[in-house]
Amino acid sequence: MSSDRLPSRSENFAEWYNQIVLRAELADYAPVRGCMVVRPYGWALWENIQKALDRRFKETGHVNAAFPLFIPKSFLEKEKAHVEGFSPELAVVTIGGGEELEEPLVVRPTSETIIGHMYSKWIKSHRDLPVLINMWNNVVRWELRTKLFLRTTEFYWQEGHTAHATHEEAEAETLQMLDIYADFAENEAAVPVIQGLKSEREKFAGALRSYTIEAMMGDLRALQSGTSHNLGDNFSRAFNIRYSDQNNELQYCWTTSWGLSTRFIGTIIMVHGDDQGLILPPRLAPYQLVIVPIFRNEEQKTVVFEAVKRIEAQLSEFRVKVDWREDVTPGFKFNDWEMRGVPLRIELGPRDVESQQVVLVRRDISGSEGKFQVSQDGLASVVEKMLIDIQNHLFKRAVRFREENTHRVETYEDFKETLEHKGGFIRVHWAGTSEDEDLIKEETRATIRCFPLDPPEGHGCCFYTGEETDRIAIFARAY
Amino acid sequence: MSSDRLPSRSENFAEWYNQIVLRAELADYAPVRGCMVVRPYGWALWENIQKALDRRFKETGHVNAAFPLFIPKSFLEKEKAHVEGFSPELAVVTIGGGEELEEPLVVRPTSETIIGHMYSKWIKSHRDLPVLINMWNNVVRWELRTKLFLRTTEFYWQEGHTAHATHEEAEAETLQMLDIYADFAENEAAVPVIQGLKSEREKFAGALRSYTIEAMMGDLRALQSGTSHNLGDNFSRAFNIRYSDQNNELQYCWTTSWGLSTRFIGTIIMVHGDDQGLILPPRLAPYQLVIVPIFRNEEQKTVVFEAVKRIEAQLSEFRVKVDWREDVTPGFKFNDWEMRGVPLRIELGPRDVESQQVVLVRRDISGSEGKFQVSQDGLASVVEKMLIDIQNHLFKRAVRFREENTHRVETYEDFKETLEHKGGFIRVHWAGTSEDEDLIKEETRATIRCFPLDPPEGHGCCFYTGEETDRIAIFARAY
């Protein structure tokens, strides 16, 4: 399969994406409609994402737990907006142990309801607050049009659910978790994101306010890469989550929820990848470095293998893969690991052994500029520095790309033309209504990705209604 | 709740168990029949179990992946013994996205079938073998009589699935994983286990041979605490998992599967716990150490809190909890953390601050023998040594308990009497048939836990049939 050419991004971005996911063995189609199998290479990437996030969650006082997969159907119906949002997407268990169930069980599409039920049982006093729980799990949403990682019937994520004594605390938590997502995206995945508030049309079903991190993909479309919701007292009223305050009076809690999913793997692919395949940020890459031994005969092989083992030991602080295969050529291996996005490659042949050097090849810079002859002496510190350089370069390149493809427009005509001929993010003053947003979406397929949390820019005229406003919106076509 | 007395183990072991699980906040009943919520303290214990196992899996070349939750019903029917074993326990999704499904989807009770399907797609050549994949996930088996951690409709586990070129390799893998489970149980959980082969009656539905680690609980019953299955070519024939060998001929693969679940938390509770509550092995305990500050007035509080902070920093290499609560007494805290099984407690009052000492209290030894006055100087190394001592003591105590409660019998009369009056494990020579095993089970509720893999003991007469044999069996009543 790897011998066929990968479609280029410009000729067919969607097919380029699918082919990378399959060829790099990140995921595969499951025999169940809309489901995926996350293969070991993809799961190792997810495990690194999990570690980076979990550490941040625990540093901010969160703990993990596990709530059931099945939710009684009646639970979903307790929060009106929530059930409306999720009803069309449910998978329902109607048979258990060979018998028809009295009450059908929904396979969780998200867990606000069942967690709300448990919190109402656990929380009694202000001394029990805040409750800061996260869960790593699988959820199911019946999707009609699916795409590996981006939209599948079953997917993997974490969902955090917290309960607080006041609305202010809940809002602070919501924003703190948004910040953690942004910090993770930028400093671990080298993905620049815009933090912002979702419009009423795009917010989570049941939320008071939803926040998002939005990233720009290589085809200029936006991808919502993580969300954090202030649920107000909607779920605490629906599930009677109350605490007695210092004066012994019963008060409703204020709750939040926040999630980041395997979808983020799609973000990484589409932000960094190029026509040769995947490019993984060093901090998350399952292998940070691949070593390819080069030899022509048994004598050379012995000498080279010995040197490779020594160098592998020298680099034990990194995640290193040695490609020992003998049934494929070095050239095949170079292409293969480039396609799989390993950030750094070491080539080692008999001449390198003799001169006590190695050839280092950066995945993020093609041609001779990305190729270095380096002494074996002190190799670990050179590798360390180079991995940091790659991480920084990927981030800066993505920032530049986003900036180059973010446009400002003053009128709706301008908006449509920019969207049609340039694409990307369109930054505007916005004073429209939800209905205006619907009309724009219908006509252009662009939606409000968010109202960014950046410092205010001052007043201006709404590109659509002409009204004066200080609200900024970012529009884009999105995944 | 904690103020009520915990039932003692001798008066009601089952209720003692349930109360510990609930009071220590390890788990709670879910609003869905037979399901549980694993609370943060229980999940932290599970995370430590996961880390200890996952490290061992990876050191032996295994990688993690994720296969779908849903399995087409027809898949299960491809392996005859498998479908017979699991059919009565299935949860079935019949509705997706508001519509009746053409083919119902089973919520995985275990994943041999869907993984078999994927392996048949991925494995082509002998160069693709072995495939060594593990998955951490949730599975569902519709259980009628449930008990927290021990038997719930949904539970959490890892399931490893490997494919090999030869039967010998598959058998070696099966035994390697059994060994890893035993090593984990004994060296991390301080739980002595007997490694053995399951009888035909007790083996996994679809396996050629099942191996088990069996542990003795505090009420003398056995608990199967992890299993490793040699699946022969049963699943590779059912799912057509084949590879072309060196001569380019198609051969069936030989597969294995092995799993250890949240049930193991039940093992830990029932092996180590006492009438005061849980006792956690230091290597797995979410908190290895709790610090309880003691003071009577604000002045003392200031002094003590300052010292506690210094000591907490001194012990940063351990998992430490400081109980800062001010609305409960130190005595309440002592009982509370004893009940929650924290291996070591530090008490620190104004006099200790003055004398530069702390009081260390071991959870595993009651009374004055478990209490030590220790200098704050060099405390970390004392704590380290003491945690190792506790770990070793728990293991030795459990070994001694099992030995004291393992009996040998020569006749069936003796067997029944021993079972009735003593309980525990009964070690016998065994030459009976599966039908004999059924009869014994019916009459005594005891089953063959395993044929232990110990070195041979020589010939003897079967206690049931009188035939001479060198096969040893361990019978017990089991969970």
Summarize it:
Two copies of one chain form a homodimer. Chain A is of the alpha+beta class and 479 residues long. Chain A contains 14 helices and 25 strands.
Name some characteristics of this structure:
homodimer; 479 residues; alpha+beta; Translation Initiation Factor IF3; 3 domains; 5-stranded mixed sheet
Tell me what you see in this structure:
- The structure is a homodimer of 479-residue chains.
- With 479 residues, the first copy, chain A, is of the alpha+beta class.
- Helix content of chain A is 35%, strand content 27%.
- Chain A has 14 helices and 25 strands.
- In chain A, strands 3-7-8-14-11-10-9-22-25-21-20 form an 11-stranded mixed beta sheet, with helices on both faces. A 5-stranded mixed beta sheet of chain A has the order 16-15-17-18-19, sandwiched between helices.
- In chain A, helix 2 crosses helix 6.
- The longest helix of chain A is centred in the C-terminal third of the chain and has 26 residues, at 379-404.
- The radius of gyration of chain A is 25 Å and the shape is globular.
- At the A-B interface, strand 2, helix 2, strand 3, strand 4 and strand 5 of A face strand 2, helix 2, strand 3, strand 4 and strand 5 of B.
